[in-house]
Amino acid sequence: MTGTLITVAPTGAELSKDDFPQLPTTLEELVATARACEAAGAGLIHLHLRDADHRPTLDRGVLKAAVDAVRETTGLIVQLSTGGSVHDPLESRLTVLDADPDSCSLTCGTTNFGDDVFLNPWGFMSDLYVEAQRREIVPEFELFDLGHIFALGRLIETHGLPYGGKVHVDFVTGVPGAMPGTPAALMAAAAVLPPEVTSWSATGIGRAHLPILATAIAAGGHARVGMEDNTMYARGLVVEGNAQLVARAAELARILQRPPLTTTEARALLGVKDRRP
C-alpha cells in the first residue's frame, strides 16, 4: 500500500466535556472538526455521539443528524461506532445502522475495559455482521485481543465476505485489560490475520499513541488518531484539537513515503458505497 488511510476518532464515550472543553460534542463542533480533519489529511471519521448534556447517546435522531451533516459538508467516510459506551444494551447498539452510515465498527469479542467489561457475544457480532451486509454498510472490525482475530475468521467463514468484498480491521491497543500498546504486540497480531483481510490499521491509547502510529505506518498498515484515544500531544502539552493529531499523523505518513489517502482513494480501499447526495 503506497498511501495511508488516516482515521480520526474525535470524541469517544469516555471523556468529559467539563474536563476537555475542546472535545467536539455538539453537532456544530463535530462538523467543524470533520472539516478541519479532512483538510489535515483524514479520510474517515469514527463517530460517537453526545446528547444536549454532552453525555454519550445512541439516539437515532442524533446519530442520523450527525451522519447527514458530516456527509453534506465533507467527503469523509462516515463511520458510526456500534460500541456506544460500555453501558449501552446490545439491542440499542444494533439500531445504530438505522442512521445509514457508510461504515460501522464491529468489535470481534468481549474484552475487559478498565474496570468495566465491553460486551460483544457471538450472537450480537453475527447479527451485526449480517445486518451490515443487508444494508450495504462496510464494517471495520475492531480487534482488542489476539482471540478477536480468530473470531473475525469465524464470522467470515460463517457469513461470507462483508459488503464491498474488502476486510479492514483496526487493532485497538493499550486499553487496560486488553492487548498492550507495544510494537511487538501489534506486529504479533498482524502476523496472524486471516488471508481475507485486505487492510489493517492500529490505534494506540494514551502513551501508546506514537509508538503504535509509527509502527503501523512503517509496517504497511494504516492509522487511527483522535481525542477518543489520546488527549496529550506531548509530555505536558494537552491536545488543542483533533486536527492537530491528524496533521502529525499525515506528516509522519509523508516522511515514510506513504502520504495520506484522499477520500476517494479511501473509499476504494474499503469498498464503501457512495451515499453522498
Helix-strand blueprint:
Elements: E1 6-8, H1 27-40, E2 44-47, E3 49-50, E4 56-57, H2 60-73, E5 77-80, H3 90-94, E6 103-107, E7 111-113, E8 116-118, H4 122-135, E9 138-143, H5 146-159, E10 168-173, H6 183-190, E11 199-204, H7 209-218, E12 222-225, E13 232-234, E14 237-238, H8 242-255, H9 263-270
Helix pairs in contact: 1-2, 1-8
Count of helix runs: 9
Domains (count) = 1
- Ranges where pLDDT stays below 50 over 5 or more residues in a row are none
Biggest sheet overview: 8 strands, parallel, barrel
Which overall shape is indicated by the principal axes computed on the Cα atoms?
Answer: globular
| Strand fraction | 15-25%
Whole-number average pLDDT? 96
The CATH class is Alpha Beta
Give the C-alpha Rg.
Answer: 17 Å
Class inferred from helices and paired strands:
alpha/beta
The CATH superfamily turns out to be Aldolase class I
CATH topology: TIM Barrel
- The proportion of residues forming helix, as a percent range, comes to 25-40%
CATH architecture: Alpha-Beta Barrel
Element-by-element helix/strand order: EHEEEHEHEEEHEHEHEHEEEHH
Q: List the strand order in the largest sheet.
A: 1-2-5-6-9-10-11-12
Distance between the termini: 29 Å
How many E-type strands? 14
Q: Could you explain the architecture of this structure?
A:
With 277 residues, the protein is α/β, with parallel strands linked by helices. The chain has one domain (6-270): TIM Barrel (Alpha-Beta Barrel). Helix content is 36%, strand content 19%. It is built from nine helices and 14 strands. The protein has helices at 27-40, 60-73, 90-94, 122-135, 146-159, 183-190, 209-218, 242-255, 263-270; strands spanning 6-8, 44-47, 49-50, 56-57, 77-80, 103-107, 111-113, 116-118, 138-143, 168-173, 199-204, 222-225, 232-234, 237-238. The protein has an eight-stranded parallel β-barrel, surrounded by eight helices. Strand 5, helix 3 (90-94) and strand 6 form a beta-alpha-beta unit.
